[in-house]
Every structure is written in C-alpha cells, then in structure tokens.
Amino acid sequence: SGGKMASTAAGKQRIPKVAKVKNKAPAEVQITAEQLLREAKERELELLPPPPQQKITDVEELNDYKLRKRKTFEDNIRKNRTVISNWIKYAQWEESLKEIQRARSIYERALDVDYRNVTLWLKYAEMEMKNRQVNHARNIWDRAITTLPRVNQFWYKYTYMEEMLGNVAGSRQVFERWMEWQPEEQAWHSYINFELRYKEVDRARSIYERYILFTLLVLVHPDVKNWIKYARFEEKHSYFAHARKVYERAVEFFGEEHMDEHLYVAFAKFEENQKEFERVRVIYKYALDRIPKQEAQNLFKNYTIFEKKFGDRRGIEDIIVSKRRFQYEEEVKANPHNYDAWFDYLRLVESDTGAETVREVYERAIANVPPIQEKRHWKRYIYLWINYALYEELEAKASKRTRQVYQACLELLPHKKFTFAKMWLLYAQFEIRQKNLPLARRALGTSIGKCPKNKLFKGYIELELQLREFDRCRKLYEKFLEFAPENCTSWIKFAELETILGDIDRARAIYELAIGQPRLDMPEVLWKSYIDFEIEQEEYEKTRNLYRRLLQRTQHVKVWISFAQFELSAGREQRLQRCRQIYEEANKAMRSCEEKEERVMLLESWRNFEEEFGTDATKERIDKLMPEKIKKRRKLQAEDGSDAGWEEYYDYIFPEDTANQPNLKLLAMAKLWKKQQQESEAAAMDPDKDIDESQT
Fold this sequence. Notes:
It is found in: Nucleus speckle. There is one protein chain. By secondary structure, this protein is mostly helical. The chain contains 36 helices and two strands. A two-stranded antiparallel sheet has the order 1-2. The chain is elongated, with a radius of gyration of 58 Å. It starts with a helix and ends with a helix.
C-alpha cells in the first residue's frame, strides 16, 4: 500500500495543472507576431553583466580549466566540423598555451576536413614562423603550393620568408617553381624585382625575355605595357641599345593592325632622352599617319610638345596643320554634305601636302553628290569640281586629268532638269588653252543642243568673236534669237556686230525684225539703240520716222523730250522751229494724260529750251502755260475698308484746261481775300500810322 501511495504521488507530480480561462473573449490590445519578434531582438541587444574573473592559483585548477576549455572546443567542432573558424580558435588557444604540438595536431585535423581553405594554411604557416619552426613552415608552404598552386598568396609568403631568412637561392628556386605555372603579370614583376634587389641584372633580363615569350605564346591580346616596362628596365640600367631593340621588336610585333599610341609615345620619349630628335620626329609621324586620329590624342599632344621644345618653325606648322586636318576630318565625317568644310579642308591640304593626297581628298569630296536634283542644292557642290579641275591644270600640270575631271562633271549633271553654264564655258576655255579648238566647239555645241541657255550662247559667240569667225557668230546669233526672240540685248548685239562689219542694211533689217517682235523684255532699250543707230548713220528722216512710229505705240514724256532734243541737235536750218513744234504737239497730246507730273516735266523741259533759245514772247507764253501747285487733302482707307484718316498731297492746275478755269478764279479770289485780311490786321496793329496817313 505504501508503494501504491508513492507511485500515486509521483503520478500526481508529473501531470501539470491546466489553468482555467474564465474570460475567453479576445483582449482589447492585440499583440502581433511581428511585435513579439521585435521585442525579442531588442532584448538581445541588452548588455549582460560580464562573467566574473577567475583566478587560477595552482596546477590542478589550471588542468581543470584546460580540460573544460578543450571539452568546449571539441564539442563545438563535433557540432559542426566545417566551420573552420572553430578549428582556428582552438589551435590559437593551444598556441597561446605554448602547446605547439597540440596546435599542429588541430591544424592537421582541420586540413583533413577542408584542405582548400586558404586561411587555414596561412594561419598554420604563420604559427610555425612565429615559433621559429622554419623547417616546419617550409614543409607547410611546400604542401600548400603543391595542393593549391594557383593561390598567389602562398607563393608570395613563401618567397618572402626565404628572402627574410637570407636564403636567396631557396627563394629563387621557389620563384622558378612558381614561373612554371605561368602566373599573372605581377608574379613575373615580383621575380624581376627580387633579382634587381640583389643586382642580378642579367637574370632580370632573362626573366623579361621569358615573360615576353610567354605573352606572345599564351596571351591572345598581349599588353603593350609589358614591352614598355622591359625597355624602361634596360634604359634604367643604361643598356640603351638593348632598350631601343626592345622598342623596335615591340613595333614589329604589333604591326599596323594593333598599333597602340602608348608604345610610340614611350619609344619617342626614350629617343628624346637620347637626344635623337630626328628619330623622334620619324616615330611620331609614322604613328600619326597610321593610327586613327580619335585614338591618337595623347600621341598628338606629345608630338606638339616635342616640336615646341626642339622643332623649328616648319615643324610647329606641320603640327598645327595636322591638328586642323583632324578637325576637318571630324567635320566631314559628321556631315559629308557640308561643302564649306570640304573647301576649307582642301585649301589646307593643297597648301601642305602632295598631289596624291590632294587628289584623294578631292575624290572623297566630289563623291558626296547632293541627294536632291534641285539646282540650289548643287550650287556649292559644283565648285568642288571647278576647284578640282583648276588644281589639276594649274598646280599639278596634268591636262589629261583636267579633261577627265571636266568630262566626269558634265556627265554627272542632270542636264534635263538643270545645268551649269560655267562648267561648259570653263571646259571650252581649257580646251582652247590646250590649243584644241575642235573639242572646245564640240563641247559648246553639245551644251547648246542639250540645255540651251542665254549664258551659253553669249559665251560661244564671244569665243567666236575673239577668233574672228564672223560667219559662225551670225549663225549663233540666229540660233540664239530663235531660242529667245524676246531678248532685246541679243538683237542689239547682233545689229552692232553687223554695224561693225559695215553691213548697214543687215543691221537695219535686224532692228526692224526686233521691233516687230510681239513680246520684248526691254523694248525701250531696243528702240533707243535703233534710233541711236540711225542718228549715227546721219539718217535724220529715218530717225524722225522712227520717233513717229514709237509715239504711235507710247506717249511717254521722255520720248517727246528725246524727240525735241533730237530736232534741236539734228538740223541746222529751222531747228528751233522744229523743236518748238514738237513741244507744241507734245503739250496737246499730254493734255489728256492722267499723270500730271509727266506734263509738268514736259513744260519744264520746254521752259528750259525757251530760256536758252526763245524770245520774250515765247518765254511769256510758256510761263502762262505753267501750272499752279496746290496742296490738297484726301481720305484714306485701310485694307479692311475702315477709315484710316487723311493725307496731304500736291496737285497741279493747268491754265489751259478750261474745266479748271472756275477753280483758278476761285483760287485767285481766295488769294486776294487773304491779302486784304493781312493788310487790315497790320493796320489794326499800328493806329498812329493810320492817323498820319489821314492828315497827309
């Protein structure tokens, strides 16, 4: 029964009591899972009081402490063997207790777990080096570089350790083993610097050679800086011939396909230091001619500095020209149809380079044909061809190429839409300078057949006139007048030609044909020329007839005045009477003219004639004919029909016009009334004067 009671009591102890919840409704303030997590995180940051310091006073306590710590480390390792930091802490703790053998054991166990961990090897080797266990350290480094040969840190540490120990041969041997693995660039330079620290220049040179050979055989795109470093190494140690040879090998190796401006800048600076200025200039020019301009900014800058320091005026000008050429190249690449940029570029090239270069630029320029066949787009472009042809003829002295340029240009032009007469004429003049008259005539004849223009006819006629081929000139004038019968200048020139040749009847017949044309661009010029022609031939009757015919067509005041002046100068007998008669006729004819200024002009010309040649009676008569000038006002209207105010203008009232007689009388009466008003005002202002006058 006692046993049963005991078991019952134990059972009662094991069953937890469940609290009874009286109110199962939700709480007013709800706590979220996020809030619980945040509070837990905040409580983690609360500072816990540090553990109490433990002082070990005897060996037993120490051993007990060691046992506890080792058990803790072993437990941690047992929980997660792959966490290397636990192994390293364990080993470092054993090292701090000078338990080197135990630390080694721990590192070895760790390496069995993860031998690829770099930190583990480094800590292991550092422990051996700290405790001056050199052979152990060597063994560890050997194992490390054998196991992980691509980890450069092992090699650097190993070589540095050997060098610090003064084992130069051992360090060199490690470097050699490293180089067999063909490491990256910095490893080679470390080896070279190692040899240089011990003045082993020949060994360093051989390493450079091996490295250069390695870059040639292994790397797809070898870097130019390795060659430059090699050359500078030779230069630094005063092996100038070797340095030059290295640069030359580099230039030859990279060739023209993979040119790099840094190589040529370094090469040029080396030669500059050796006072080989001509070699420097050759290097810069060679590179600038072959490297694309956008990739040679630094090269060009250094070349400019060099020329300013050591070059003459010509060299500096060459630099400036090269810079401007680069600018023009950029402009024409950006916009190939910028013909002004091409003109500037060609002017620069012509002044500085050879014929082949100039031709190349001209060919590139004329290849940019305007995309639209409209003459306004071609006006600048055509001058590229003209300048090209003139360059070939005047500068290059190549007549054959000049002819080819002209012919290519004329074939390119769309003559059915438009043409350039200047190109045909320049080509013809060129052929004449070459004493090839048939080709010149053929060119001009082709131009008139394909695209007749006034300028082409005039140029062809002028050419034949200079050659004194008058029959050809007549035929050309006939063709010209068939093409443009309204052109008065052509008729006049044709008649003048016949006059010069002494064929007066042909000249007169040409004039008659001309004035008989239904449409003329400048008929007044043609009539004047015809009249001057008859006056020159002293055919006064024919001249009078011409004036009468002209007056039938127009009653212009200038024609009447010219007719009167002709009569004054033509005949000696009765010339004054004839001239006065013309003025009389003109005055009668001009009465119906609406343009009163023209009539006034006629009367003024008549008055000038009478003042010079007339009598008192004729002078008095013309004075009576002169009009009165009065000021009037008229209403103005805007374009939309609204009132725009008033304007003043001058009008003329002629005494001869009967319709204007009442106006003249009214004007005279107004003037008389105004005069009387002025007199009465003057009398009112001076009463004493009136008294004296009455007494008198």
